[in-house]
Each structure stands twice: as C-alpha cells, then as structure tokens.
Specification:
This protein is α/β, with parallel strands linked by helices. It is built from twelve helices and 13 strands. The protein has two domains: 241 residues, Aspartate Aminotransferase, domain 2, CATH 3.40.640.10; 124 residues, Aspartate Aminotransferase, domain 1, CATH 3.90.1150.10. It starts with 7 loop residues before the first helix and ends with a helix.
C-alpha cells in the first residue's frame, strides 16, 4: 500500500468543479491583484475567526515581516521566539533588521516555553513571537500577560494553525489571533487551508494597524504613486483568494478529520516502547497540521527508512534548530544551549494525517510503525 505524507490531489478531486469555476471567474473578470475577490476572502476569514481585520499578502513569510514592520520593530530591537520552528519565523525578524533571541520549547507540545521566553527578555526586547506549532496553540494567556508586563508587542505565528482554539480559565474559547496584536497565517499548499501557490494573511483587532498593513503590502501607500513610507510588493492575488474562498467552508471538517485520525494513531500506537505520541494540552483544540511523534533511542532515521520501504511517507520537522543554522552563527549561540529544541530535532517524525486518509491507510501506517518496534 502507498500512503504519502500528503495527497493534495485527493482534496482537489472533491472540489475540482467549484474551484475551476472560481478560477474562471477571476480570469474572465481580468482583475488579478487584490480587488473584490481578495476583499471577500479577507472578510470571510475575519468572520470565521471573529476578528475584525484581515489583510491578505503574498506569503506566510511576508505576513510575519509585515507584522513586525507594522509594530515598528527594526534595527537595534530584539524579538524573542523559538528555535524549533520553520526558518521564516526568525528570518523575518532578521530581515526587518532586528535580532532573533531564542528561548527553549516545552518538551510536551514543542511550543515556546513562556518561562523561558520571559528569561530571554532584555531592555532591547521589542516583541514576542510565539509559534503555534503543528496546529496547537501556544500558551497565549501567559504570553499576553508577559507582553503586558514588559510593554512588548505580541505577534502570533499561526502559519500552521488557522482555526485552532484555546479555552481560557473563565471557560471562553479563543482562536488564533485573539490575544496577539497581530497574527500571521500561511496558505502554502500543505497547510490545512492551502492555496495553489503561496499566500498569506495578517489578522488583528486594531484598525490603525490594519490600515498600515494595507499600505505596507503595496509599497507603502494605498493611493497609486503616492508612498507614505517604503513598503513591499506583497499582495494576495485574486486567483489564490478565489481558490481559498472555495476551500474555507470545508476547513472545520478537514481539521476535525485530522483530529479523528490523530486519535486513531494515539490509540493504535499507545504503549509502543520507544515511541511517544503527541501531547495536546487539555485547554487546546488542535487542528493537527502535523501528527508528530518522538522516536527514542536514536532510531528516528531508521524508522523513517522502514516506513519509506513500506510505501509510507514521513518527514522531519525540523532537523536542525534555528540557533544552530549557519546563517545565524553571528548570534553567538552554541550547541547545548537549548536542550529541548535540540532533543526534539533528533527525535521528531511526522506521519500522514491528511483528511482524505482511508481507514485502511491509517491502519497500514500504524501497523508499519508497530512492526518496526516489534
């Protein structure tokens, strides 16, 4: 049996007619950059999340970059974030002229540890950037409180977590973007809500920040040929917005299917010695962008090779923490400084969890994993 890590064609087959109809509509109208199709999608995302402002842009990476610029983070500033995440998180900080400052992760969720983040704050710290890794929200009340105490900006990197939720102590549910000043999403094809190419969005509660984001994404001015500041060319195109508008109503069902698949793996792999299944904190409702296990005893790569031989896809997110990347050597970090991030990088392996998996495919993946450890 062949079980790829992700099968985008399976999702497309169920939506092909509707998607192509939306794409043809854009082509016939010949309005490809921003415009009413993008505005409609922005309004749909804002309504889904219950957040008043949504600003589309060219990619999830640009969503982070624009968020930092909107909060006036720049040269001489520091931003505290995690070293165990996709490169764009720290890359965006660097590219606005600021300095990424890393703090270690929690070993259970792989998310930034609030206590470690607080210890990393200095007088030069301008913002916090927690990442909602693999579809599970970081501990946002703790980060909101830390940001308030230290007078810091708070940007949520929710590239992998659109629609994830967290229950507060008073029983209210919040979603990604509720507590951060700004929140960045990615519509890269592998995301739970993925387009047919790159795309991103920033959401937030502040109208002035949203207006600045709209200027920054079009070279620093909303009126053509008039520029209030130097911005970027980072516009969400109408073709991507049209595709994403078709997909958006299915997002909740797709994420629910991913949770069901994760629950199946949790049960099927329970008790396998040498394997640790993912932890979801009790206050969280994850969207399971990745189902990421820990493989103990230095056997991660051997398990990946075993699965490949059996036709099962898997991947390592992420094999080298950011503080050990060559391009960040100038920051002066050393191996051993963030032990939980380094241990995770040596142990994690993500298994197929996309919504269209059949019961037979799920069982085959679980049986293949059990066979390796047996």
């Amino acid at each position: 049996m062949n079980v790829p890590l992700l099968d985008l064609s399976a999702q497309y087959r169920g939506l092909a007619d509707e998607v192509m109809g939306a794409v043809r509509g854009v082509i016939e109208e010949q309005r490809f950059i921003l415009g009413p199709v993008v505005e409609r999608f922005e309004a749909e995302v804002a309504a889904l999340l219950g957040i008043p402002h949504a600003v589309g842009c060219a990619s999830g990476t640009d969503a982070l970059l624009l968020s930092l610029r909107a909060l006036d983070v720049g040269r001489g500033d520091e931003v505290v974030t995690t070293p165990f995440t996709f490169f764009a998180t720290a890359g965006a900080i660097h590219n606005v002229g600021a300095r990424p400052v890393f703090a270690d992760i929690r070993p259970d969720t792989f998310n930034l540890d609030p206590a470690a983040a607080e210890a990393a704050v200095t007088p030069r710290t301008r913002a916090l950037m927690p990442v909602h890794l693999f579809g599970q929200m970081a501990e946002m009340p703790a980060f909101r409180a830390l940001a308030a105490r230290s007078e810091l900006g708070l940007i949520e990197d929710a590239a992998q977590a659109i629609g994830a939720r967290q229950r507060l102590e008073d029983g209210r549910w919040i979603t990604t973007g509720s507590l951060g000043e700004l929140c960045a999403f990615s519509f890269f094809p592998s995301k739970n809500l993925g387009g047919f190419g790159d795309g991103g969005m920033v959401v937030g509660n502040d109208a002035a920040l949203a207006e600045r984001l709209r200027k920054l994404r079009v070279h620093g001015g909303v009126q053509m040929y008039h520029h209030e500041e130097v911005g970027y060319n980072s516009r969400l195109d109408a073709l991507q917005a049209a595709v994403l508008s078709v997909k958006l109503p299915h997002l909740a069902a797709w994420s629910a299917a991913r949770r069901r698949h994760a629950a199946f793996y949790d049960e099927a792999l329970a008790g396998v010695e040498g394997l640790v299944t993912p932890t979801v904190r009790p206050e969280n409702e994850t969207i399971v962008n990745q189902y990421t296990v820990r493989v103990l005893g230095g056997k991660r790569d051997a398990l990946a090779a075993h699965l490949k031989a059996r036709g099962v896809g898997s991947s390592v997110y992420y094999p080298l923490p950011l503080h050990l990347q060559e391009c960040f050597a100038y920051l002066g970090y050393r191996e051993g400084q963030f032990p939980e991030s380094e241990r995770a990088a040596k142990e994690v392996l993500s298994l197929p969890v996309y919504p269209e998996l059949s019961a037979a495919q799920l069982e085959y993946v679980a049986e293949s994993v059990r066979a390796f450890f047996a």
